[in-house]
């Protein structure tokens, strides 16, 4: 693999900490990057992805599609020769999971009242 085909990428988390940098081929997909993020997620964070589909990657202000390659997502004018590309990571729990948790939190309490008339 030629050296110019490799790209250094660092992933910036919500609290300003980073995962990486790691070296990827320009042919690597965004989905592959997300899998690496989920597997290398730091322990002890208050927010953590449970699955790849909960992770969004943002580069140069754009949310990256899973089927795009690193080479397709690169913006040449924003890179410095030998520099590291920083991608921002957003964790967005799945909607179904959030609805289930919300239902549990907001479920009304059932009151039972027994009255007897004498």
From TrEMBL:
<keyword id="KW-0564">Palmitate</keyword>
<keyword id="KW-0636">Prenylation</keyword>
<dbReference type="InterPro" id="IPR029071">
    <property type="entry name" value="Ubiquitin-like_domsf"/>
</dbReference>
<dbReference type="InterPro" id="IPR040015">
    <property type="entry name" value="UBL3-like"/>
</dbReference>
<dbReference type="InterPro" id="IPR017000">
    <property type="entry name" value="MUB"/>
</dbReference>
<keyword id="KW-1003">Cell membrane</keyword>
<keyword id="KW-0472">Membrane</keyword>
<dbReference type="InterPro" id="IPR000626">
    <property type="entry name" value="Ubiquitin-like_dom"/>
</dbReference>
<dbReference type="GO" id="GO:0005886">
    <property type="term" value="C:plasma membrane"/>
</dbReference>
<comment type="function">
    <text>May serve as docking site to facilitate the association of other proteins to the plasma membrane.</text>
</comment>
<dbReference type="Pfam" id="PF13881">
    <property type="entry name" value="Rad60-SLD_2"/>
</dbReference>
<dbReference type="InterPro" id="IPR039540">
    <property type="entry name" value="UBL3-like_ubiquitin_dom"/>
</dbReference>
<protein>
    <recommendedName>
        <fullName>Membrane-anchored ubiquitin-fold protein</fullName>
    </recommendedName>
</protein>
<keyword id="KW-0488">Methylation</keyword>
<keyword id="KW-0449">Lipoprotein</keyword>
<feature type="domain" description="Ubiquitin-like">
    <location>
        <begin position="7"/>
        <end position="73"/>
    </location>
</feature>
């Amino acid at each position: 693999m030629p050296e110019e085909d490799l790209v250094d990428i660092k992933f910036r988390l919500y609290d300003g900490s980073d995962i990486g940098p790691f070296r990827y081929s320009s042919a690597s997909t965004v989905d592959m990057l997300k899998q690496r993020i989920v597997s290398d997620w730091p322990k002890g964070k208050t927010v953590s992805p449970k699955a790849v589909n909960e992770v969004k990657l943002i580069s140069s202000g754009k949310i990256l599609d899973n089927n795009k390659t690193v080479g397709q997502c690169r913006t040449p004018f924003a890179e410095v020769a030998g520099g590291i590309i920083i991608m921002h990571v957003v964790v967005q729990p799945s909607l179904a999971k959030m609805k289930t948790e919300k239902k549990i939190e907001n479920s009304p309490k059932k009151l039972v009242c027994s009255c007897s008339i004498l």
